[in-house]
Amino acid sequence: MGRCDVLHRGALVSYYADEVRRSSATSTTAGKVTVDSKIEVFWKDDHCFYPGVVKEFNEDGKAHVLYDDGDEETLDLSKENIKIINSSGVSELTDEAAEADGENIDCGGDYEENKRGGAVENFFTHSLCERWRSELGQSRLTELAVKMQRKALLDTTMSDYGPKARRFILFREQHQRPWLPATEATVLLYIASVLQDGGIKSASLQPYLSAINNYHEDLRFPGQAKGRVVTRVVKGMATIQAELAVQEENIETQRTWLPAGHVRRVHEAALKLTPRSSEELRLLRAFSYVVVAFVTFGRPDTGTSLSRQHVHCDDSEFFVVLLKEKGRRHHLVKRRLCIPWRGVALLKELIEHWEFHCDTAWSRSEMTQPDAYWLLPEDPKNFKASIANDWIGLALSELDCRPPEGGHFSAHSTQKGAMTCARAVGVTMEKVCFFGGWSQFSSAVQHYIDPTALRDADMNYYFEWLTWSQ
């Protein structure tokens, strides 16, 4: 084997629709396979399904499959990505295939499946890849071209794409609306259903609309979830949700920046804490993270993913070599941030204090200490960026550091606070953008800075050193 059937757009449209229905099923279809069942088995190396018939089952319950091209194979179907072809010619996707970790649609060689997206994500990836293979033919260059198509998107983007598009497709099917292309009227009804169902705010709707547009454009149809009318309806949705919030006295608070005074209290508390339990060690980590994220202008994903090999201390300075940064995945460059010890008093003591107690915990555990800078022995192997919310919440609540009226702290508050405080003491926008990893011309920077913040001694404590050479 090694061939791949050509799927043209008409067949691909049908494939999309069938896969949506299959991905929403809850029954375990692998158990339906019997002798003489017609199935299709996905071959990871060839990136496609091959049809065949189950001839018999051995004593271990494995199936002997005779492929249509004459090849034979014995398989544990519960571990394979298969489709069962019923009498009407419609295929069913096994739940085992939907749950297999990284064994579904590879589509390029090294894609690690995000379980949150699961098979939903994979059938979109697979369908898009098949479209290009049908036009370019089967070759190594084709596979490289397909891989580049997929790699243009973050894995998290791919895992979000499928479920959001599926929601719209299922809505279209339930309401029997025109399909491919969907009409603008269908999109408007869909937005109305989102408002009616609740749970999604207008400010969070754009990824759902983008999924609809991407889905259409991948199949060379014009995107339908954009334009003047759609924009107006989304604005109306925001107005209705705001009116409901007022009626229910459930007005959302604004994410605010973290004051330097709060960080200084956290800093002092960390140096006084000698952890004698795992709970106190986690508290020390939370304290230390807040300070380090603050002085380095760190985003949650950057701060939580620091590695030991990229955090350095010498006689004169503390420096971090950032490798994983949001928006820089496609242009991987190490970026070095340096803070002189004389620039931030007691920063060296804090770093040494955290590293000593972290190293001690790993030594006592008798496990190999990993490279992750914030990882403790009882933790999972890696963190999601959202863990920063927990650490900041733990550190601030321990000291009763509260946000101003009408605001709340989040994982982004450390970066917002650093940028606001630095600007308040007179640090140039060029330096603020450098430390924060922003383009100097990015309009998004302005959303992170409160231009009304007044300079104080705590701001000077952490950021006045950035003005020394000015």
From TrEMBL:
<dbReference type="GO" id="GO:0007064">
    <property type="term" value="P:mitotic sister chromatid cohesion"/>
</dbReference>
<dbReference type="GO" id="GO:0003677">
    <property type="term" value="F:DNA binding"/>
</dbReference>
<dbReference type="InterPro" id="IPR013762">
    <property type="entry name" value="Integrase-like_cat_sf"/>
</dbReference>
<feature type="domain" description="Tudor">
    <location>
        <begin position="31"/>
        <end position="88"/>
    </location>
</feature>
<dbReference type="GO" id="GO:0006310">
    <property type="term" value="P:DNA recombination"/>
</dbReference>
<dbReference type="InterPro" id="IPR010998">
    <property type="entry name" value="Integrase_recombinase_N"/>
</dbReference>
<protein>
    <recommendedName>
        <fullName>Tudor domain-containing protein</fullName>
    </recommendedName>
</protein>
<keyword id="KW-0539">Nucleus</keyword>
<keyword id="KW-0238">DNA-binding</keyword>
<dbReference type="GO" id="GO:0015074">
    <property type="term" value="P:DNA integration"/>
</dbReference>
<dbReference type="GO" id="GO:0005634">
    <property type="term" value="C:nucleus"/>
</dbReference>
<dbReference type="InterPro" id="IPR039776">
    <property type="entry name" value="Pds5"/>
</dbReference>
<dbReference type="GO" id="GO:0000785">
    <property type="term" value="C:chromatin"/>
</dbReference>
<dbReference type="InterPro" id="IPR002999">
    <property type="entry name" value="Tudor"/>
</dbReference>
<dbReference type="InterPro" id="IPR011010">
    <property type="entry name" value="DNA_brk_join_enz"/>
</dbReference>
<keyword id="KW-0233">DNA recombination</keyword>
<dbReference type="GO" id="GO:0006281">
    <property type="term" value="P:DNA repair"/>
</dbReference>
